[in-house]
Design a protein that fits this description.
heterodimer, A: mainly alpha, 21 helices, B: mainly alpha, elongated
């Protein structure tokens, strides 16, 4: 029995993880408990050294001392303020009037506004709630199919996950050990494809099911000409300013992702103030939500670090590698397997749990297979969008349920989400087939010159006891 | 039971107050970080304008020196505030039941069953975790305190300011865990009902 346990410690520990998590106690503490339990078991069985567990403290230090994770509270606070700053209203009103005359015009407007909001904030809740409150009543009033309306709002809010500056990409960059700037650059093509896919779907729908998405009647389009242009400008100018403050400064190398998030907070404050929405209750509520989300997320990471430290100690890394490198189909086989696995596990775990528990297990295997980790990260980011859209637990649907009028049935929201989940899966397939969509935006890889030799003084047997003699009567030889 | 519930109320009040500190730290950290970035990239142009056009009478050089001497402190303060907001906020987050769960079982469980899950989870997962992590982090903090360890960034803050939040936070979490245990027992044994039901946190 003991021999069996010590030979199969890693698989047993993984099974223990699943059991402890399913129990339903908060994930952060369950993770740490599995880690510590198996840590002490491992010490008892002589699999790990007793002082190995002391490394936990350095793991904790690296979590709390991580500059990048400071981006979590900043982006969350920014989203919480923007959600009620009136920006989404201005944008939707302008775009809605602009596209209203064509079939599906409101859907196009929602998708575009979702993309713009996504380029400003990094959190899904802000986009979905803001758009749901404004667009859903209008779409219902003018006879849009209710399933389509809820689906397009939830999906467009979820694009935020993939469009820089997304919090998901920050966390994935951290977990994969890549720079946030590169991750953002890599995600640009993918998010553009996602927006185009969504719009193509609306176009298709306007041909095969025209009555689902009627054009707005002329009397609904009150703004014309200069009035309309002014409304669009009022939405777009602050948006572009915020995009510059956050994304622009990161891409130009002026600020780190964390600092950009902090400046975004200031930008959101200013915008809310300009729109006359900046009140103390709003700010305080935003700060409180932010504090709780940050504590919750960072504690999951703390638990996950305790778990993975012990998991590596008992040989978990080798076990996972042996399991996954043996998959048929090489790189593509691995990617297909991993994406199906993440797609399924996203039904049960939320994004942060996947990023902190699953991704560190997959990353070394991906690297060993020679997969570009930025590409891998963008793929996972695209895939994890679906975890916000899965009925019945998806967060985006959950938020929408919270703000939709009672006449909207939950089953409508669930059914409405399905075509968009399919579109998101299509995006993952497209990205696997065409890695250039990600890699083309990255700067050239730094190549290592195989012939480069570093000569350490003294290594070639030269005398180091006296300083080198330099002949100053001759000019130094250059480029012989 | 009444005495225990009174104790639990005291603990909750402690948690509420540290939670308020943590909430303020969110705002302060954002302001410090934004100031840091803005100042770093605008000081050059401000000094240039000042020297060329004498906008501020040419006497702004001291600003640059002030920033140069304290910029590492600003960086350190951000991380100290981050550690503070996480470690001081975690116990309040536990109190309002916002630590995320895998809710396949929990979501459909009855009130009583949820109580059992919370009770056993606190006794077997949370309390041992806090004890072990306090055991590891307390001497680690103490060593930094007694040796006057400074930040590895030149001119930074003392390191114990950061390190103290780990044992402190786990101790607060341990206390909050005890309070939750008391409330679970009270709910199982008496007519007492806990205040916060679980809802998935927004993100």
């Amino acid at each position: 029995m003991i021999a069996f346990v010590s030979h199969n410690m890693a698989p047993l520990m993984f099974a223990g993880l699943i059991l402890f998590m399913l129990y339903g106690y908060p994930a952060a503490f369950s993770l740490a408990a599995v880690g510590l339990l198996f840590g002490f078991l491992g010490v008892e069985l002589g699999l790990i050294q007793p002082d190995f567990l002391g490394n936990i403290i350095f793991q904790l230090e690296s979590v709390l001392g991580n500059d990048l994770l400071l981006a979590i509270p900043f982006f969350t606070l920014m989203g919480a303020i923007l959600e009620r700053s009136g920006l989404a209203e201005d944008l939707l009103e302008g775009f809605g009037q602009l596209f209203g005359g064509v079939r599906g015009g409101l859907s196009y407007a929602v998708i575009l506004v979702g993309a713009v909001l996504g380029a400003i904030t990094g959190t899904v809740a802000a986009s979905v709630i803001a758009m749901g409150l404004i667009a859903l009543p209008i779409m219902m009033k003018y006879g849009y199919n209710i399933r389509h309306a809820t689906g397009v709002i939830a999906a467009s809010g979820t694009i935020t996950q993939l469009i820089p500056p997304s919090l998901v990409l920050v966390i994935l960059a951290d977990q994969l050990g890549k720079s946030v700037g590169d991750m953002y650059r890599g995600a640009m093509g993918a998010s553009a494809v996602q927006v185009l896919l969504f719009m193509a779907f609306v176009l298709l729908l306007s041909i095969i099911r025209p009555n689902f998405i009627p054009a707005l009647p002329p009397e609904a389009r009150t703004l014309r000409g200069w009035e309309l242009a002014k409304r669009c400008i009022r939405g777009m100018v602050p948006s572009l300013a915020l995009i510059f403050i956050v994304l622009g400064t990161i891409f130009m190398g002026l600020a780190t992702a964390t600092e950009a998030g902090a400046m975004g907070v200031i930008g959101a404050f200013v915008l809310a103030w300009l729109n006359g929405r900046l009140t103390w209750p709003l700010v305080w509520q935003g700060m409180q939500t932010t504090m709780r989300i940050t504590a919750m997320v960072v504690f999951i990471l703390i638990g996950a670090r305790v778990f993975s430290l012990v998991f590596q100690g008992v040989g978990g890394k080798e076990w996972i590698e042996a399991l996954l490198t043996g998959l048929p189909g090489g790189v593509v086989g691995f990617l297909v397997f991993v994406n199906i696995f993440v797609f399924i596990i996203a039904f049960f775990l939320d994004f942060f749990e996947i990023a902190f528990i699953i991704v560190p297990l997959l990353a070394p295997v991906a690297e060993a297979l020679g997969i570009n980790l930025i590409w891998f990260g963008v793929l996972l980011g695209a895939n994890m969008q679906t975890s916000f859209m899965h009925p019945p637990f998806g967060f985006a649907l959950f938020y929408l349920r919270g703000i939709a009028p009672p006449s909207v049935r939950s089953s409508d929201i669930y059914w409405g989400a399905i075509p968009w989940v399919v579109l998101q899966v299509m995006l993952v397939a497209i990205l696997i087939a065409f890695p250039q969509l990600v890699t083309a935006f990255l700067e050239g890889e730094i190549t290592v010159d195989p012939n480069f030799e570093l000569t350490v003084p003294g290594s070639d047997g030269n005398d180091l006891s006296s300083p080198p003699v330099i002949d100053l009567n001759q000019p130094p030889p250059i480029g012989d | 039971m009444a005495a225990l519930l009174a104790l639990s109320r005291v603990i909750d009040e402690v948690g509420r107050r540290t939670g308020i500190i943590a909430t303020w730290l969110v705002l302060f950290a954002a302001l410090v970080s934004a100031f840091n970035a803005l100042f770093r990239y605008s000081i050059g142009s401000i000094l240039y304008l000042d020297a060329k056009l004498r906008v501020f009478g040419g006497g702004l050089g001291f600003l640059f020196n002030l920033y140069r001497d304290n910029s590492n402190s600003l960086r350190d303060i951000q991380l100290i505030m981050f550690a503070g907001l996480v470690m001081l906020g975690a116990s309040w987050t536990l109190r309002v039941n916002e630590h995320v769960r895998v809710d396949i079982v929990y979501g459909s469980a009855s009130r009583r069953r949820r109580c059992w899950i919370d009770l056993t989870g606190a006794i077997f997962f949370l309390v041992p975790m806090c004890l072990v992590l306090i055991y590891f982090s307390w001497p680690w903090f103490l060593e930094s305190w007694t040796s006057h360890e400074m930040s590895s960034n030149a001119g930074g803050m003392p390191r114990w300011l950061f390190k103290i939040f780990l044992p402190l936070g786990f101790a607060l979490l341990l206390l909050q865990g005890l309070s939750e245990i008391i409330k679970c027992v009270a709910e199982l044994a008496t007519e007492y009902r806990r205040e916060f039901t679980y809802e998935k946190p927004a993100q």
